[in-house]
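Predicting holo structure, NAP bound.
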Amino acid sequence: MFDLTKFSLKDKVAIVTGGSRGIGQGIAFGFAKFGAKVAVTSRKAEDLEATAAEIRACGGEALVVPAHIGKIDEINKVIGKVLDRYGRIDILVNNAGASPAMGSVLDCDERLWDTVMNLNMKGLYFMSQAAARVMKNQGGGKIINISSVNGFKPEPFVSVYSISKAGVRMITKAFAAELAPYNIQVNTIAPGPVNTKMMDSHWWNLPPEEAKKAKAALEEALPMHRIGYPDDITGAAVYLASDASAYTTGTEIVIDGAYLLSNVPFVEKY
Ligand SMILES: NC(=O)c1ccc[n+]([C@@H]2O[C@H](COP(=O)([O-])OP(=O)(O)OC[C@H]3O[C@@H](n4cnc5c(N)ncnc54)[C@H](OP(=O)(O)O)[C@@H]3O)[C@@H](O)[C@H]2O)c1
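Done. Tokens:
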């Protein structure tokens, strides 16, 4: 009979990048509830402290590690601090991501390209490499990369982000193929629209009332007539982090309320 404890994360050590809010925070809370010790990392210490306090208030264990994941020396700092505290890394969720500005492919400049790529692809790659070296020596581990539906279907005016998220899907496959012999499973979760600060940034150029209307119109147009919530993503992350997914690697779970089956654009124009 299937052993339900396979879904347990008891005493496993997890790192969640971008764990201070939104999807990453939801995953950090979920991991803590399933028994993991969770290191949360992002740039703003006070937001991380608030997340850690909430985890501890529910009886969980949390470590706060402020860092910019687009910078290799800061990535090494994260890995060092987690190893100092817990001595191992069982799970890495590469969730930190940015889409700082949007606009036509005709207007993208080098600074925008570097900002998005340094975090969404370079940081994710080297974070995975650093954690995988530890996991290999331990005898296994789990890496979960947060891509996006935009990694499947480019969004007009969101080109660099879309390209970076397609790259995330390939990083997953490249790492999964090479690391399978070391019992390291690497998978992608590709969310559709989810209610977070990043989601709201789609309407940064509109006055608040118009932004509210545009968001409501998007909700109405979506196949399920709603935008997702971070908790809609957490269950898949728990599965991919747990022993229940021991034979699942190099693949991707799209969680989008059928967004990719529709013709709904996130935004009409910029
Ligand atoms: N929301 C959606 O609709 C949606 C859809 C598809 C995919 N996604 C993906 O899901 C992931 C999470 O997105 P979200 O919507 O939860 O976004 P969010 O609410 O904006 O949260 C982003 C998180 O990443 C952190 N972060 C940003 N830049 C960072 C950096 N340079 N170094 C370290 N941490 C950094 C943020 O904290 P600080 O700013 O304090 O650093 C925050 O914790 C992203 O990879 C995003 O692309 C989101």
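Helices lie at 22-33, 45-57, 72-86, 110-138, 159-179, 197-200, 208-221, 231-241.
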